[in-house]
Amino acid sequence: MWAEYTKSVAKSDPVAVMLATLKRYYPEDELVTMLVAAKESNTIDMLFAQLYAEWITAEKTLDEAFTTFGLHEVTEHDLKHGAFTRWLSYADEYFKAHDDNNKSIVESDVAAEVLSTLQKNLVDKVLVNLLAAAKKTDRVDSIFSKLYAEWVNRYTPLDISGALGLQTASSEEFRDRWISYVDEYFNAQDIAGKSVPEYLPENMVRALTIYYPKDKMLSMLANAKRTDEADRIFSRLYTKWMTEGKTPLDVFMAFGLHEAKTVDAKHASFARWLDFIDTQNKDQGNAGLIMLTAVAGHVSYSDLIQLLGKAKTEAAQIARNMLPRFWSKNGPNEAFKEAALKGDGELLSSAGFLAWIKFMSSHNKANPSQKASVFETMERFFGEKQLTTVLIAASKNSVSTELSKELLPKQLEHWLERKTSAFAGEDYTPETVFTKLQLDKDKNVIMNPLFRLWVNYAGDDRGRVPILPVLLEYYETDVLARMILEAKKIEDGALAEHVKFSLFNYWLDRATSTGKDHRLFAFDALRIGENGLPSDLLSVYKEFSAFSAKTMNLRMDAAGTPSVKAAQMVHQVREKKTEAAKAKEAVPMKSTETWWGCPEWISGLFSET
Q1: Among 170, 321, 446, 560, which residue has the least CB neighbours within 10 Å?
Q2: Taking Cα atoms as reference points, which of 256, 241, 163, 166 lies closest to residue 201?
Q3: Are residues 112 and 150 in contact, defined by beta-carbon separation less than 8 angstroms?
Q4: Taking 80 as the threshold, does the pLDDT of residue 397 lie above it?
Q5: 224: exposed, middle or buried (C-beta count within 10 Å: 0-12, 13-18, 19+)?
Q6: Do the domain assignments include residue 485?
Q7: pLDDT tens digits for 518-560?
Q8: Helix/strand/coil percent split, the chain, to 5
Q9: First and final CA of the chain: distance in angstroms?
Q10: 562 forms bridges with which residues in the sheet?
């Protein structure tokens, strides 16, 4: 607003008037800082142009301007690239004014002089980062390119490695500072028509070992972004290592992989090691065997396979395919032991286990008379409890679900055999197996895939009582009823229906044995009237009422007459209804209440059918 006002009232050169006014109120260094911090606009650009013109008239040197911009105080963590780009703009104007042909920095050969000013005022580490920050702006892109070309021409990546502060650099800083500079260096060499010295990558690596242990340095290189220049460095290293006769084991240990505490399929150093194997074995004929021989005794096979993971190099694929052949000299037990498989929740989805399964398949095919059981071998090493935990965890993992479906029935068959044995029957009752399968802590046990296995195990094929005592040991009746309703919503609700009718039969039997009205028994079990409001379980109650009426009529003794208990129960119900009718006539009731003072929706449940 003030700038617009000044432009409107100043009769001539309003920018000079604005700058003069600002100088009256602010010292020059504060004014410059304020202008640098201001949002870029045409007015700010014109103010800087006016300031540059006045500095040139006053013969202000680049060093003096550098100090005015506060760049002499710049630190590694305070890269004021806005001030730096403005200073470069002044340097450009400065050289134009002092050149007979009015040439700028880009047009003339003065980049070396500008760099000298920078180096005189800044340490190399700060300067490199300052240049990198300036490169990201459009304002001085052409000036920067000229300066950077001079910088790259003057310093090799080997020279600059110390200035970049790599001894404290993170992997990200390492990539952004040094790998990026290597890329610029190679590009500059190519542009200049020069051949890149064959020894350069090795020299760079040698220089880095001043700051890092060799294995850490190689790890940092491996973790750097896979750019062309990074690949070029490793390609030269591979050639050098092969010339020196380095073995896969030598390189494996050089990367520090023999000491890796954790490994996975994305391990960067391992990926580079696979690249070396591929480079060493162009025909790929023996890459897998060389790899396995190299790491034998230095990393477990489970870790090795986990490292291989889903690596796409041919060496990795060959190694995966060779593992069964490598194990074939020993039996299934020794192969399992060598694989050093970990009995955790991810076992069945691990690359190592899948390789072992493949080996077992090959073994059994080659030895039909001496087939080995996958399940028994696993139980032998893990024990029953741990194996059960592994299989249950696998059933919840989408990657290993199918494999767990094959192994879990084997587990239950094994338990069934023990259940029928005289010495171990108590340990494998349906109640015990229910907890072994961890079904006692499920939000909806009916929807658990393991529940169907357990029902089959319990031998409950009549839809009657056997499974209910176990379920009711861990779940309240109303909770179980809600599980049934929820399970019936899924595509296959047959199992939920099975549990429902088991529950209905359980209620009938319990009510009959206690002499209680069967509908009242279900009513209490479902806790329908506890809060005086309609229950979400009314549908279950009504369905049971219809079921019980039909079932009670069918429960006949051998002579075709109702059973004694059933007859007694019917008589008791009729007596209660007669008493209720008499009480209803004697006691006036409100329209919203039943004869016992409960809401009408409850009394309706016990009306004549």
Answers
A1: 560
A2: 241
A3: yes
A4: no
A5: buried
A6: yes
A7: 888 888 888 886 665 567 788 888 888 888 877 766 554 433 4
A8: 70, 0, 30
A9: 89
A10: 556
Residue 475 lies in a domain: yes
CA distance linking residue 463 with residue 450, whole number of Å: 18
Q: What length does the chain have?
A: 609
| Rounded Cα gap, residues 313 and 94, in angstroms | 57
542 located within any domain = yes
Tokens for 350, please give them: 């691990």
Residue type, 594: T
Nearest alpha carbon to residue 363 among 340, 393, 335, 395: 335
Nearest-10 crossing angle of helices 477-487, 538-554: 100
Rounded-to-integer distance, Cα 271 and Cα 257, Å: 11
Here the tokens at position 321 are 């395919």
DSSP 11-72: SS-HHHHHHHHHHHHS-HHHHHHHHHHSPP-HHHHHHHHHHHHHHHHTT--HHHHHHHTTGG
Virtual CA dihedral for 106, 112, 113, 116, nearest 10 degrees? 130
pLDDT above 60 for 262: no
Q: Output the pLDDT for position 335.
A: 74
Question: Is the pTM value of this prediction over 0.90?
Answer: no
What is the Cα–Cα distance from 522 to 478, expressed in whole angstroms?
A: 10
Environment class of 343 (CB within 10 Å of its CB; exposed 0-12, middle 13-18, buried 19+)? middle
The Cα 537–Cα 483 span in angstroms is 11
**Which is more confident, 135 or 431?**
431
CA dihedral of residues 463, 464, 466, 468 (deg, nearest 10): 90
Note whether residue 249 is domain-resident.
no
Exposure on the CB side of residue 406, measured as CA atoms within 13 A: 8
Ranges of H-type helices in 58-140: 62-68, 81-98, 111-121, 124-135
Most confident of 26-40, 463-477, 548-562, 575-589: 26-40
**Token pair of 81 as six digits:** 């690239």
Q: Number of folded domains in the chain? A: 1
- Phi, psi of 556, rounded to the nearest 5 degrees: -110, 155
Q: Which two tokens stand for residue 174?
A: 């390492």
- Look up the domain containing 604 and give its range: 468-609
Transcribe 513-553 into DSSP letters.
HHT--HHHHHHHHTTTTSSSS--TTHHHHHHHHHHHHHHHH
DSSP 391: H
